[in-house]
Amino acid sequence: MSVKPYGNQIGSKKEQVTQMFNRIAPKYDLLNHLLSFRIDKLWRRRVVKLIKPLRMPDVLDLATGTGDLAIAIGRKVKPNVIYGVDISSGMLALAAKKVLKHQLQHKIVLKEGDSENLPFEKHSFDVVTVAFGVRNFENLQAGLSEMARVLRPGGMVIVLEFSKPLSFPMKQLYRLYFTRILPWWGGLISRDKEAYSYLPASVLQFPDGKDFDDELVKAGLNPVRRWKQTFGIATIYVALKPEQ
Ligand SMILES: C[S@@+](CC[C@H](N)C(=O)[O-])C[C@H]1O[C@@H](n2cnc3c(N)ncnc32)[C@H](O)[C@@H]1O
Predict the structure, then answer these.
(1) Domains of the chain, each with CATH number or no CATH
(2) Please, are residues 234 and 206 in contact by the beta-carbon 8 Å criterion?
(3) β strands within 25-183, DSSP E
(4) What residues contact residue 147 under an 8 Å CB cut-off, 6+ apart?
(5) Percentage of the chain lying above the pLDDT 90 cut
(6) Ligand 1: distance of its center to the CA of 55 in Å?
(7) Which of 2, 14, 99, 244 is the most exposed place for a label (fewest CB within 10 A)?
(8) pLDDT digit string (tens) for 47-106?
């Protein structure tokens, strides 16, 4: 049973996640960069580097939020198209402003939708990316299976997600920061205390490392790389859809 943002309050995890992101959307970018000391930018750049060698790929960025990864891809890669899909209209409204600011409206198409039930035909994309999104899915396997379905054979999935550092002293420092300091700061600035308690709680219970690779395999994908970021605070997972 995965953690829900507002615990026993009314609504499924999906409904609560949508409500939470609609609520914190105006403060999301500020808090994201503040609480991660901007390391998240470096991690997204590394995702972009993995896509750069591809020629005119069709890209789908799931749980695109305020669009940072889709925009980073649009600026550095020459894609045919990038679809940015998110379940929160509040997050997408901010993404739309940023897309215009970067003059990427001809490359990036934003769409409200659920990663667990995607509005695309099978074999539509060369690459599917998700940054800090999969942990929020109500049904992880449904989301991963949808990614596999919309990918072309040989296509690539790249997931960037928080993970748990394993070695001393990072393990201890991370727990202290993540479970004490971050919820306090996040709650204060966003005025949504639960949202920033949900963040560490959802990370601590989410499968990472080999366990996440096992989930990719269950969805019919072949993990090819597991790349730990900054002492294992986050991990970039790369998997391919089999050719046949
Ligand atoms: C932590 S934010 C990440 C946003 C962005 N990818 C980034 O790197 O900043 C998670 C996003 O996942 C979205 N989300 C959660 N569940 C979703 C689902 N089932 N389908 C689509 N988006 C979803 C939320 O609305 C939110 O915008």
Answers:
(1) 13-164+208-240 (3.40.50.150)
(2) no
(3) 58-62, 81-86, 108-112, 125-131, 151-162
(4) 62, 115, 128, 130, 157, 219, 221
(5) 77
(6) 27
(7) 244
(8) 999 999 999 999 999 999 999 999 999 999 988 999 999 999 999 999 999 999 999 999
